[in-house]
Each structure stands twice: as C-alpha cells, then as structure tokens.
Records
---
Amino acid sequence: MRLLLINPNTTQTMTDLMVREAGKLLSPGTELKAVSGRFGGRYVSSRATYAIAGHAALDAYAEHGADVDAVALACFGDPALLALKEIAHQPVVGMAEASCLTAAAMGGRFAIVTGGERWGPMLREFVALMGMSERLAFVQTVAPTGADIAREPERALGLLADACRACVTEHGADSVILGGAGLAGLATRISDKVPVPLIDGLAACVRMAEHLARTGAGKAKVGSYARTPPVESVGLGKPLARLLADS
Amino acid sequence: MRLLLINPNTTQTMTDLMVREAGKLLSPGTELKAVSGRFGGRYVSSRATYAIAGHAALDAYAEHGADVDAVALACFGDPALLALKEIAHQPVVGMAEASCLTAAAMGGRFAIVTGGERWGPMLREFVALMGMSERLAFVQTVAPTGADIAREPERALGLLADACRACVTEHGADSVILGGAGLAGLATRISDKVPVPLIDGLAACVRMAEHLARTGAGKAKVGSYARTPPVESVGLGKPLARLLADS
Amino acid sequence: MRLLLINPNTTQTMTDLMVREAGKLLSPGTELKAVSGRFGGRYVSSRATYAIAGHAALDAYAEHGADVDAVALACFGDPALLALKEIAHQPVVGMAEASCLTAAAMGGRFAIVTGGERWGPMLREFVALMGMSERLAFVQTVAPTGADIAREPERALGLLADACRACVTEHGADSVILGGAGLAGLATRISDKVPVPLIDGLAACVRMAEHLARTGAGKAKVGSYARTPPVESVGLGKPLARLLADS
Amino acid sequence: MRLLLINPNTTQTMTDLMVREAGKLLSPGTELKAVSGRFGGRYVSSRATYAIAGHAALDAYAEHGADVDAVALACFGDPALLALKEIAHQPVVGMAEASCLTAAAMGGRFAIVTGGERWGPMLREFVALMGMSERLAFVQTVAPTGADIAREPERALGLLADACRACVTEHGADSVILGGAGLAGLATRISDKVPVPLIDGLAACVRMAEHLARTGAGKAKVGSYARTPPVESVGLGKPLARLLADS
Amino acid sequence: MRLLLINPNTTQTMTDLMVREAGKLLSPGTELKAVSGRFGGRYVSSRATYAIAGHAALDAYAEHGADVDAVALACFGDPALLALKEIAHQPVVGMAEASCLTAAAMGGRFAIVTGGERWGPMLREFVALMGMSERLAFVQTVAPTGADIAREPERALGLLADACRACVTEHGADSVILGGAGLAGLATRISDKVPVPLIDGLAACVRMAEHLARTGAGKAKVGSYARTPPVESVGLGKPLARLLADS
Amino acid sequence: MRLLLINPNTTQTMTDLMVREAGKLLSPGTELKAVSGRFGGRYVSSRATYAIAGHAALDAYAEHGADVDAVALACFGDPALLALKEIAHQPVVGMAEASCLTAAAMGGRFAIVTGGERWGPMLREFVALMGMSERLAFVQTVAPTGADIAREPERALGLLADACRACVTEHGADSVILGGAGLAGLATRISDKVPVPLIDGLAACVRMAEHLARTGAGKAKVGSYARTPPVESVGLGKPLARLLADS
C-alpha cells in the first residue's frame, strides 16, 4: 500500500519529523511518500494561512497523487479536506478528522490539545463542519505554535500534559487528542500523566488512511464527492490546472 | 493481536458466518475469537430483544474477554455498546459505530441499509446517541430480517442494491453502509451497482477494532468510561457477577 | 385503577420504601402492585448495571404486567424505558421521564439532583434521548448512591439541599428534580430551602402514570411502539420468553 | 381543587363548549371556573390575533385568578404562556404544552392536527420554544378553523381522521394530538380510525393542570418565573394594572 | 424614505431620546415618524409587560403605519415582531433583530449587554426564535433597567463598559451589542474601552430598516407572512380592529 | 465611502457585469473599486475551485484593500470569507452572507436559488457555518452555471422563476435569494412571478457593505478576528506576503 502524506505548510523540517514518526507506525508493506506545500505560510495558525494552505494541499495532490492508495492530509485542522475528497481518486483523510473519529470510538466526549492560540475557534468550527460538536468537550490551545513545539519538544511536554489533564478535570473529556504536525510522537511521552485515552494525531491519521485504503470502497460517481466537470483556469501550477481541466 | 467478536444474539450460524467473512479481512497476525449470546432472542429486531441482547453482550464479555486486545460488538445497532466500553479493559467498537465512523471519513452524509423494518427508528436513535445525526442521510430498511437474508442471500441482493441506490438518488447519500451481521460479505457483491462508496459493516467493525487496538490508547482511569466501584448482584452468570464485584 | 411499579434493581427494601411513599400520593381508587428485579445489581449506578436492569425490567413486566392500567418504571434513569413502551399493552412511564415532563411544565430549564456520581453523563444522555437537552440546566450528582441515601436519609438532607440550591444559583435552573428511588419522599423535607419548584421523582412518576392511564389513548398498532412479530428465544425467564413469542 | 380555564379568544360559545367537555374529565372534587378574553379576535389563527390574545389572557388571569389552584390556558398554541407562568401565583399549563408533554410520554415522535392553515408555522415555533422539536413529527392543519369545526363538528370528523392517519403513514408519527379549543371532545369519536394513541388537547390540558396542582411544587422565588418588581402602567384593565403594580 | 419607529412601551421620554439619537444616523432624505405605545407598562422588563407591549406595537402600527416605507420596532427584545411582519404592508425590523444580524456580519459570536436583569433568559429565547443561538456568546444584563440608564447615563457608562469587556474576556465574544432603547447613543462613548466591534442597537435598527426599504422586496403573498383572512374582534382600538377586519 | 468588490474567480466579464449592476444600487457618494482573482478557475462551482478562490480573494485584498471602507466578497458562497474578516482592516461581507442576513429579516425561512448543480451541498454547509441552518428552507440549484446564465440571461429567466416558485410551494420558503455573480440584476425581472420577497444577492451584498461601513464598529483587537502575529511565507504574491508578514 502506498500513502501520500501532504504537509500543506511550507516547512520541510515539519514534514521530515512526520515522516520519521510515521515510520514507526506503518503496517508492514505500507510505503509513505511525503510532500510539503509549494507556497504559503511557514506554519498555519490563522484563518488566512489556513485558506492558502488549502490551495497548497490541492496543488501538492495534483503533482504527487497519481499512484497512491490513500492520502493523509497532515495539518491538524485539515485545510481543503473536503475539496481533496472531491478531487482525489483515492480516499483522503485529514489529521484532525482521523483524530476525532478515533477519539469518538473511545466513548463519550473528546478534547483537543494543540499549539497556537488562534486554533481554538478554528478547530471548533472544523468539528462543527464534521457534524461532531456534541462529542467535543473542549479545545485547549497552548501558546507555543506547533512549529515552536517541534523545535523544542522537551520544553513543551509539561505544558501539554497540564493542558490534557485540565481537559479531563475541568471539561469532563473522556479522551484527549494531541493534535498538530509539530506534536507528532509526543503522546506516548505524556500518556502516563493523562488519566484518559490519549490520541496521537499523526498516528490516527496514518492508520485511518490505511484503514480507508483497505475498505476498497471506491470513488463516488455521483454527488458532492464525485469528480467535477472540467473547468479552465489561469495562473495555477500546471498539474493542478491539468487536474481541473481533466476532472 | 487477538480480537473478541461478540454476537449478542443467540444464533450460532450467524456467528459462524461472521467468522468466515472476518477471516478474509484480518491483518496477518490477528486472531479472532467469536462468541454468541447465551440467552435472548434468536435475532434482534425490536427494542425488547435489543435490551436483552445488551445484557447478553456483557455476559459474553465477562466470560470470554480476559485476554484479548480489542472487542468487536458484532450486532448492527450495538446493544450495550457504552456499557461494554465502561466495563471492558480493552477498546470496544460496535458494528454500527465502526460503520458510521468509517462512512463519515468518505465525506458528506451516509445512509444505512439493513434488514428488519423495526430497525429504522432504533438506528436513527443510535446515530443520535453517537452525536452524528447531521451526517446521517437516511436509514432504509428492507422487509427481510438479517436472519432471513443470511439464509438466502441470493434472493436479497437485488433488493439491497435497489435500497442502496434509493438512498443515493432520493436522499442524497454520499456513502452507504450495508449493516447487519446477516449481511456480512454482501457489500462486495453489489458495490458495482451503487454509485457511491459502499461500507461493509463487518469489515468496518473488524478493521476499526484492529485500528483501536494499535492505538494503545489505554483504559480511562476517571470519568464515565473508567471501571466502576464494585457492586453486588443476584441472579447473574458467574463471570459477570464476578466482573461487577471486582470492578 | 391498577398501577404496576417496577423497581428494576434487586433491593427489595428500596421497593418497599417506594410503596410506602407512593401510598401517600395515589388518587382514591388507585391500587399499586410493586415488584423488584429478579436479577442484576443491588443498585444501578453504572452503565453495566443499567443495561442489565433493562433486561430485568422487561422480565418483571412479563411476569406481573397482565392486568394493570399503567406501568411506572421506578428507577431514575429508566432502564429499557422504550423497550417497555414497545412491549407493554398499557402506557408506561419512567421516573426520570415523568420528572422531566413535569419539570418542563414549570417553565424554563430544570436541573436534576441525584445520588451516585456515575449518573451524571448517563442522565445527560437520557435527557438527550428524550430530545429535551435544551430544557436541561444541569445534572448535579452527590457522592452517596441512592441506596446510601435511602439507608440514612437524615445525613443526606443538607447535602441534597445544597446541591439543589447550587443548581439554581450557579446553573440558572428554574426548577429542580430530586431523582432516584432512594430519595423518594425527601423533596417535601427540603423544598423550603430551595427557591424554585422542587419535583419529587416518585410523585411525578406515579401521578404521570395515573394521568396516562386516564387518557385511554390506546396502544399503537403501527410503528416503533406497536407490538413486534413473534420471536423465539433461549435462556430467558418463561414469562418473558412467552411474551416475545406471542407478541 | 379549583382550576381556572382561560379561553383567550372572545367567543363565549367556545368557552362553553370547553366547559361542557371538561366536565366529563375532571377528577371528583375539582371545580372549574372558565373565562373568555375581554378583547381581541373572535378566534385566533394569525400571528396578530395571537399576540393580542396573549394580553387578553393576562387580563383575564388578573381578574379571575385569585383563588385557584392551577390555571389551564385553553387556546391551542398557548398565547402568553410563559408570561402567565411568570405572573401567576399558581402552576399554569397551556393546551398545546400539556398535549406535547403527554404525547411525549407515548414514546417516539408526535404529530399535531388542528384547524386553521396559519397555525402550521406558529405551532412549529411553539414546539421549538418548548425545546421539543426533535419529538415533533409533523403539524398537519386542515382548512376549516377551530371555530368552523366547533360549529359543525360532524362535517369535520372525516377530514380530521384522514389528517391524523396521514401523520402516521406519511410522517411516521407515533402519536397524534388533536389540538384546538374547537376540537374538544372529538378525539374519542375518531380514535378507532387512527392506528396510534390520539391525544385530546383539552383533556391533556385539564388533567395536566390537576397533576401540577397536586405536585404542590410552589412558586419560583428567583429566576425568570419569579414575580417581577412592581411596574407602573397606563391604559390597562384595572386588575392587570394592579397585578403589575403589586408584583 | 419614511420610517415609522414604534416604541411599544409607554414612556414618551424614551421615544424622544430615540428620535434625537436616530436623527444623527439617518441617510439624507429619510424622514422618521415615532410613536409610543398607548397602553402597557412604563418600561418592558418582564414577560408580562413584554406580552402587553406586543399588543401595543400592533395597535400603534394600525394607527400610524399607513404611508411609511419600513417599520423599526424599537424595543430591544422586539415584542410581537413576527406579528408585525405578518400584518404590515412594509418591511419591519426589530431592534434586537437588526442588532443580531449586524453583529453576525462581524464574524464569530456576539454578546448582548442590556439593562434589566429579567432580560437574560428572554433575550436568549429571542435569539433562539431567530435560529441564531449558535452565534450568541452570552447575554450580560446589568441591574439598572434601560429606563434607569436613560435617566442617568453618566452613572451607567462604567458599568456598561465593564459588562462589555467581560463578554469578550470571559465568554469569547467577537462583537458586542449594546441593546435597549434607553442605551441609544451610548455605544460611541464606550467603544474605545471595548476591544471588539460594538454595535449600537438603535443605529443597527434604523439603518437596517433603511436597508430593507431599499431592497424593494415586496410583501409576501402566500405563507406565514402574507396578510391573513379578515377576522372580527371586540374591545380593540378602532384602527387595529379595522386592520384585522380588512386584512 | 469607498467599497472594494472582490470577484474571486478569474472571469473579468463577470466582474464587469457586477460593476454595471452595482452602479444602479449604490448610495450617493459611494465609490466602487472592483477586482477579479489573479489565478484560479474561470468560475467556481466545485469544492476545489472554491478552495483556490479563497486564496485568490486574499491575494486580491492584499493588493487592492488599502484605502477602502468596506469589502464586498462577490462570489455567492463566499470563499475565504472568515479569513478576509480576519486579515482585513475594514468590515467584510460576502454575497451569500449578506443575502442570508437580509432574507432573515423578512421573517421565517429563506430559500436559495443559484446556478451550478454542485453548489447545493456547499451552500448548505456555508449556511451551517453561519449558524443559520434553522432559517434555511431549501437550496435549489439549476443546471446552468452562473457563467452560463450571465452569458444568456434571457434563456434562464423562466427556469429561475420556476425554481423560485418551487421553493415556496414545495419547501415553504418565506423569501427567496437569487444568488450568484452571474445572476446579478435578474431578481427585478422575475420578482412579479415569485409570491414572496425575492432578494438579489449583489444588491444585498453591496448595501450590507455600506451598512457595515456606516456602523463604524471598528476592527477587533482580540480574538479570532483580530490581526494575527506576523508569519513568513514562500511563493505568494508580494502584497499578500507583505500583509502576512506585517499583520
């Protein structure tokens, strides 16, 4: 099985970190191809950089998505997730999406802990878009961005563990998601300090991508997730322009 | 990895069918142990038999759940799902739950097709309990029960394909779940007649159980899904009485 | 008029307490028959004992429900309430259900105070199943279980009054339900300490059962609350097996 | 026990009809006092006459509400229901409110059948205000108004029975409310033609008023349903002006 | 363009204040006619005075609404708003309605700050009736009523600014509405103390009325906001009686 | 007052059409500056072109947004609306947003009629994101896209009028929005064929932009719509890169 991991921001070290961590998680026989965004913010933690990252994710898919079995959109918050599901020939799953679906299976309500204070309302809106707001106990952001945390994870561990515990004791979370590309791999290091199941965003994303690839469920031929009629465009990267013109 | 599949009704041939079909789906290295309910209706398609099946599922877990890595509650509608999540030491996933979570990852809204006319409102209530009603396009039941379909699958294939297509054309479903123990394995036989992704309930359940086992997310130590204080009981099967007394 | 009160846990002293208290409430001419569960936990304050109590409630109805005019399911949280409504020939009302409907008529939002810390999320889910979450201000549990309170009510009165007042001052409740078999009769003893209408769960349940019996509204002949087609079973109590086979 | 029935429209024959029908329903020892609105539309079937009827209901309560045990607001749609609950010293229940609460206890979703085409959206909004929209299957209005039906009930019986059946077969209602002052007493005449429980609005209202009077739950001393600080007014009926000035 | 401003309470000085403030806001060429209620409470801050004010608003429209282009219902909370929309020949907008729609366009969630403690639940219910509860962050009432504030605005400014800031810091509001006839014009005096957009209720109302008048969208000819069939009445002001009889 | 109209697709003739139509609508003294997207699909009627158009809208604002009083995002569906509200120094309103807010003020539920079949679910999701789903009666798409309709409006008029009427008669709409850049100006030509208020998307957008500019409500200094901390980027247009780096 071949997976394409798209990091829709433009920081290659973040992509490299995720490739390293994902390597520990993949089933035997799964190959991972990873790409970063060609353009956009160094990291995504505002509505504007998020909107740009959506375009970058589509651009990356158009260039690299030809021969994979599933796509993992590896930016917690999942820019252009539904557009990727529409345009891709394969199953696509986002990191926040996979985390929420996995956490939901733990029972009760889940909380999300992530880096970057602007993510709070954006993630609540994302969960609402998924129709899962009833399952969301809280979104707890910590001040350092995911990029900050990736650079100095040791300094963030205590802060993150405190945030996770607060979700449980103050907001009644039955499970906690540790979300964000920059936090990949940290869940296992603090899970003993959190009294409910702790979900690692990258692990949920990669394994859910494998799960979806195995379902063999096929591409919709009608409706909102079928391919669209061809449309001309201007000023786009060639692979994306071609994908739009062919679809 | 060891999975326990609990069929909470009392029809062993249904359990055998699921074991056969699940055999085709398991990852290398996954072992499956399967048990049927000790008591209750031959099949579950009313609120009363559903309530009884919840007790039977707990009874079966108490007797057989000691040394497995995850539990698959394999009756579509998932009797006592939350009670099992509370009492079990391992992750537990129900067939309807796993199907809904998998279908959600296809994007848009999913429909459910299953056998037995009384399941309609019961499944709508189940999806509401999961907090996922916004993602549900429709529940389409066909008259034969799951047990009827398991006995004569050939006769049901056309009926089921028609029901799936109606979910798409009349109710706008972006994916369809073929749910029910008795329908295990039928999705692959009609998927070419359904223009959107078709989810097989048993496959979703077994693979989601594997996914959850791999997360290693651990048992809640506090909250609604932690083990409960010990409670005395009367008139229960010994393993269940012991499990309640120990918990 | 004849009412059947089902206490679906297995503590006869709790049933006796409710019979004593209900005696003060009944209209002239109403007779009360009361039964306890044949099997299950001594008290119900977990998801597992709740699921078992649902089976026990059906079992009790099957044995004792033949010639009554209405059924009062007298365990706050109402295990198998909808299954009883399906299978019974008479109107069935649960203690939590009757309390919520009565409190709703006070205007605004109601709170629930009950014993046993695990009831919090379970009652929130129950109210959601009733479609009345918008009317629920809060569920406040106190640490002693209903069984503890029934044994030593004097010790609990202050604790319960404090909990009721907190629902008003901190959560804006316009009325408060004092719920739980073990709390039967306590509302009148603390109502002068609570500045909003205080609803006694047992009183609401018994009087709502009388109200429903008087409507003479009849059993549904179609739909989700009509009797179901007969189904064979194994391992059940004889009256329940017969009821399923006849229905 | 003394009940005050307020008919907030200005048609005395409608009040008389309700007194006649209510006489068949009251418990031994219950006395009924009934009043019509002093001003307003002859019947209420628009948003404007509804708003005026709310004022008229308060005016009637102020004049006649002194020494009763509960108030029945007997216009289906319940103008100024929450204002009456605020201002009255006793429990107040509306005809639509009582009907919805009673129907809810039948399980599943209820439908409403009433006369006057403009009531459709108004009743959906009323049910939403009660926070019970999830329990509402449908509102089916018939063209004749309640006043028309009261004048010639025989002509309307077939129409009403057809409307009730349509709620069941087309909209999946598990019970049906026959609402409206002008329809008082008709439910018993068509209930054998409707395959689910049929709720008579007036019966639900009067009996729920008795139920609430018996709870002895008391008037809120704080919050949105407590009495308000005194307020001066101009141009109102004297009793209402006095009630506002005293409250 | 001619606007009719209806102040449905009976305090002429409040109407005069609004006329003064509105004069600063109107587009060139807009004329404003303003009327107070003929009957009802001196101010509206309870459910009872609110219900009466609804009737008074209709009465005022009937007398003064003949030749205007739009109607501004200038009591924050908008008594009988939907009835006015039904009965009026022109677009009608309420002060709370216009404020909520304007605040919504700021993005995110809005809070409401107003005078009079009883308005809290009433405004939450109003926002729910508008179907906009998801956009509402909080309703913060201050103890002085709108009438008190209108008499001594200097004393209230600090209190109001504190309340607005609390909505932002404690409840996450992205904008704040300063609502209430008595608070007209105060927003500009405290906006520099509030770190998010501050909406003045009267300004939103008057300008939204101009906006609606300009759309020229016309009166509904069918449905719930079309004129109703004529209805006889008793005891009403002559213009209102005539309007009902003609409609 | 100066408005910036952003057409985030790349068809200049569509922008020109909107400038022509907007000219008829503006208040005296309002100047309109209009820009098209620099890159992206010729028209937007899929999730992918929508995501790209969001980036293009930000890019256009960064280049042209310096000295205007409000921004009108003139693509019905409003790509990157919330990101523009975040990044802009002025009030921003989208065409679909303004239309929904204006239609809401008509009372009851509104429907949307637009061109391009893929818009149906996308617009339902947009309305949900606005938290206004309860007010939405239906989205009716017609097969020709907005671009097709703009080219040959005469051919589409009958189709559009039929679609509007269907929204009223089949889905109970109390008002209808004619949405889409390509449909600008058509509402006045069919409004006499639609029995409820008909809202022109462009008119609602431009006038709401004027309304917001007049409120002078100011930019949020905290929260989700305040400017964000500066972030570096790669591969973006210079003005947008600078705006992100400065913000």
---
Amino acid sequence: MPRTVTLALIPGDGIGPEVVAEAEKVLDRAVAGSDVVFEKTRFQLGAGRFLETGDVLTDDDLEAISRHDAILLGAVGGKPGDPRLKDANIERGLLLKLRFSLDHYVNLRPTRVYPGVPSPLRDAGEVDFLVVREGTEGPYVGNGGSIRQGTPHEIANEVSVNTAYGVERVVRFAFEKAASRRKKLTLVHKTNVLVFAGSLWKRTVDAVAADYPDVAVDYLHVDAATIFLVTEPAKFDVIVTDNLFGDILTDLAGAISGGIGLAASGNINPDGTFPSMFEPVHGSAPDIAGQQKADPTAAILSVALLLDHLGLAEAATAVTAAVEADIAERDGTPRTTAEIGDQIAARLNG
Amino acid sequence: MPRTVTLALIPGDGIGPEVVAEAEKVLDRAVAGSDVVFEKTRFQLGAGRFLETGDVLTDDDLEAISRHDAILLGAVGGKPGDPRLKDANIERGLLLKLRFSLDHYVNLRPTRVYPGVPSPLRDAGEVDFLVVREGTEGPYVGNGGSIRQGTPHEIANEVSVNTAYGVERVVRFAFEKAASRRKKLTLVHKTNVLVFAGSLWKRTVDAVAADYPDVAVDYLHVDAATIFLVTEPAKFDVIVTDNLFGDILTDLAGAISGGIGLAASGNINPDGTFPSMFEPVHGSAPDIAGQQKADPTAAILSVALLLDHLGLAEAATAVTAAVEADIAERDGTPRTTAEIGDQIAARLNG
Ligand SMILES: CC(C)[C@H](C(=O)O)[C@@H](O)C(=O)O
Ligand SMILES: CC(C)[C@H](C(=O)O)[C@@H](O)C(=O)O
C-alpha cells in the first residue's frame, strides 16, 4: 500500500512561486518510484491575496491547512513601502499566525558552509551548526501596546513571555539534536540583562543537561555570540535560543555561510499535533520576482528538511547530496531558477 | 586661568586597571602643556569591591561620582562562574545603574576598520560608521518578573519600555551626528514583529527627518542589518537603534572591524545634567588579567571620545591620530599593555 502524504503548498509572493515550483520538481523526483505519494493542495496566501480579497489568513484557510500532513511555503510579503499594504502586516497575520496556531515551537535552521561557496569570512573553517530557535514565545507573542499614541507622551511596551513549558520542550529538542550530532550545545541569551527570562532559560538548560551527560553545554550572551559566529563559526554545533535572538543569529549565520540564498528552515511541531512547515529563510524579494533570477536552493533544501521530518531519511539525504553536488560544480555561469531546479532534480535517481 | 576637569576613574576588575593605567598615561600626555588640568578621583568598584565589602554601588558612590565632569571606566565583572558572585549581577547593579541613574541616553559606538588591522571579512572596504544606541529604555529597563519560579508552571516576562520622550532625544542626536558626517542614517528595529515599539521608533525617525532634509534615511530589520554588516559594512554611516539591538550590533561591528580590542564607547548625557562615561566595549577578561597581555587601545580611544565630548577637539584628534599611527605600524611583535600605552603616548606632542 502506498503511503499518501498530504502537502499544503503556499507559494506566496515575489520569488516565492518560482522557488516553490523548483522545490516541487525536486520533491516529485525524490519520491518517484517509491511507495510515497504526495497529494498537494495549493493555497493562495500573502500580499497578492490580501490585495485581491482583503484577507490575510481566514479561519477557513487555517483549518484547511492544518488538515494536511505538512506545509511547504515559498515566501510572503509585498513590495516594501506599497501604500496599500501599509496596515496589513502580512508577516504577523500570516507567517507568525501559522507558526503560533500550529504550535511550531521549534524553528530549525541549519547552517553549513558548502564546499564551493565563498564565505565572506576570510577563514570560516568547516561550518556546520544548527540553530534551534524557539518559535511560539518570547518577544514574538504580540503582547505589546501603547498609550497616548502620536503624542509627546506616548509609551510603547513590548512584553517577552517565556514559560517553563515552552522553554523546556524546545531545550529538550535541542539536546536530542546535539546528542545525535557532535554533542555540543550552546545556550544563547542575555541573562545579565533579561534576568527573569534568562534565568528560566539557564535553569532549564542546566536541568535538562542532567539527562544528557554526553552533551557538553556552554553559554554565550547574544552579543558575544555574534562575535564568535564571525571569528570561530566552526566551533558551534547546536545553538538553542529564544525567538528573537534566533531570528537575528540565523540571518547572521546565513550571511557568514555565504548567503541567505542557501538557508533552509523548518517550523516544527515535534508532537505531530499540527503539520510542520518548511520554508527558505529568505524573503519574497519583489525586486527580482518573475525574472527567473532567484536561487531555489534554499527552498530545495527545505524540501530535504521536510522529507527528513516525515521519516523519509533516504530521500532527504539524496536531495541534500544533489544540492551539494550542484553547488560544488557552480562556476559562476548564470542559470535561471528553473535551470538550477532542473539540474538538481536531474541528479536524483540519476 | 587653567580649566579644571574633574574625572571619576573606575578601573574595575580584570584587565580594567591595566588598560585604564595606559588610558591615563595618554590622557595626561594629550593635555600636557595646555590650559586644561584633569583632577582625578579613583573609585574602587566592581567584583573586587563586592567581594570585599558586599557593596556593588552605594548611594554615596553614585552621589560622589555624579559630582564629576566625566567618568572613565575600564571594565567590570569577576570570573565567570565564581560562586561568590552568583547573585551579584555586577552588570545590572553597577554598569547599568550608572547608565540609567546618570541618564546616559546616548550610547555612542564608532566602528572603523583601521588600515593595518585585518578584518575577518575578505572584503570589508572602508568601514567607518557610528552606532547611536539608546541607553536608558527598551528591554534594559529591568521591568521583568516571574511567577511560580522553579515549577513547571513558571512564567517569566520581560517588558521593553519605549517612550516618545526617550526615543526622540536619541534620534535627534543621531540626526545631528549624521548631518556632520556622510549624511546617511539607518534606523534598525524589528517593526514587523515589535509593532508598537517599532511604530514609535519609525514615526519618530520620520518626523525628525523633516528637520534634516539633507540626511538620507533608511530602515533595516535587525536580522537583515546583521547580514549587511557582514556583506556591505562600508555602506553604513550612522545607525540609530534601541538598547538591545545596539548591544548586539556593536559587538558584531567590533568583530567585523577586526576586534573588540579596538572598540571604544561613550555613554553620553548630551544635556550635561550628569557626567558622561567613557569605556572600552570589551569586558574584564579575568583570564588574562594582571599579565600585561591586554590591548589598551580601546580604552585609549575611549579617552579620545572623552576629550571630544569635553570640547577638547584638538587633543581628541591627536589621540586618535597617535592610535592610528601605532596601529599602522603593528607588525605582530608582541608588546605588553604598558608598551603599547607608552608608544602611543610618545607619539603625542612628539
Ligand atoms: C518575517 C519575519 C516575521 C520572520 C521572523 O522574524 O521570524 C523572518 O525574519 C524569519 O526569520 O522567518
Ligand atoms: C555588560 C552588559 C550589561 C553590557 C550591555 O549589555 O550593555 C555590555 O554588553 C555592553 O555592551 O556594554
């Protein structure tokens, strides 16, 4: 009996549809001939949909999406400064709403310097680390507010909410990952300033560490972590951190590893209560949309994360290997988005 | 009539006293023969003092310090993991207490790649920018708390407080700086997630921009800013940002410019109601303390910022030039802390 996996596709805006098309190509090829069948449903969501209908993400959308086994998202967001989108906040209303509603408490972001990709760092070394970013708490909860808006007496607050429940589950996930890798876990926070949240994170890591005696644990303040990401990135194995610090560190990680164009991510609900969502870290890049200029590699590597999450380890490894081989042979000749996708797909079952 | 400037010296812990000794040497030499006399008072503060007396910063200390014209601080903080310091939080109780009590609402952090200093970046270009970091608000206010501590139901909150009053004054300062430099100002925040604080910052920058029609303004999310600091650092002129983002970005800036060992900073109260405080960005580095291994350059460049703040522009320029000349002639020969200080001092009034 073939196994059917239902996949919600959210191509989104800008270069999103272009890179998702290539990701689909590679996905189809990766499972061709196996006993797994992907059944895809397309959702038109993002700035484009908002401009047409005024909706960002309806309850019906959310309900329909959550009935799938997994989600693949391209990128969402309209042209910066588009006055019609001024009050929309597609990021909060769509991306963050999905992450929060589907309890994506692990935001998984691997960083590697692939052989053949020039890092902007003179001496990056062998970079291969994983950021496990909390996805449902911290300063992202939307518990802000302001009074006297627009007056000289305005006060605007933002509340970072951190719970033992929320921190422990993501910390456990990070330890599991570390245990299966090079057995090193670095907590990044700012315990000397954010003393309450910091203390909760620190105590949680210390407590969970007792269950993983083989994993070496250290701690860095977020400011110092940016220094080490630049000076000694090869030293990191697994970084576990809060939602905002993880956002910042993973863009920096993308930069030092030679480009956000290669950075994949998974928004994961490890319990399996809700579908997990895979997406490139990059945005919708409206300036180059529709021109076949975008590199679909990050979207394709997100497919590898998706396959791995679904337990299809062999297919995941094959996709990663195909991407690596493609990257290693890059010689600067410009290729269209579709050409890159075709060539990576052609390396599968080849 | 000679002008007397009263200076509070806080050498602090670890390498602090060593680098401050060299900074004093250079300061004395820079004003020798001029009509300015520095009258110095030494304050023993930091982990050392806490271990001796149990005090971090008493009301008397604060009162005495605040009667000075300016403050020069080395570095504070004991050995990481020292159990006797476990509950002290010298950073909050001393450094942040000084910044908040003395209304240091501008935290000024220049970044330059000095000719002769190898940047870890392959191609940094001519980097010369200034981060104007807010110093008295944001997530640093200490408005956090937790309930049910130590139980599975713990909730730990941190509140970022932002006021129109606080944001506008630092934004105006940043525009003034930009107007006197390359006339480019970049606001860094995370407006798509921290919507209330972000909106206040954005509206304030837009409003103040009207008074500075010659200054080009742009905006970056903090995550994207880390990418551009790595890929195109030469593009920045003045960055204005909140307390936490400024903390993170300036350590990153130190890293890409070839070392936190050269990064100076000013904690400034532009109104002159309270003394401003100058300090290297680096910490107390207890592991190399007392060995004459520390580079005093960041402390010496902090003296240049101090002189500039006091209106002693000529002396400030001379110190910066002496440092530049010293850096340009570095050839890797190891020098002691005192040797570096002596040699920089010797270049003054040479
Ligand atoms: C678009 C934005 C809300 C999002 C985030 O901050 O999480 C993005 O930067 C990311 O990292 O996926
Ligand atoms: C020591 C710490 C409280 C401080 C800060 O976060 O401001 C330091 O990192 C700095 O940048 O001066």
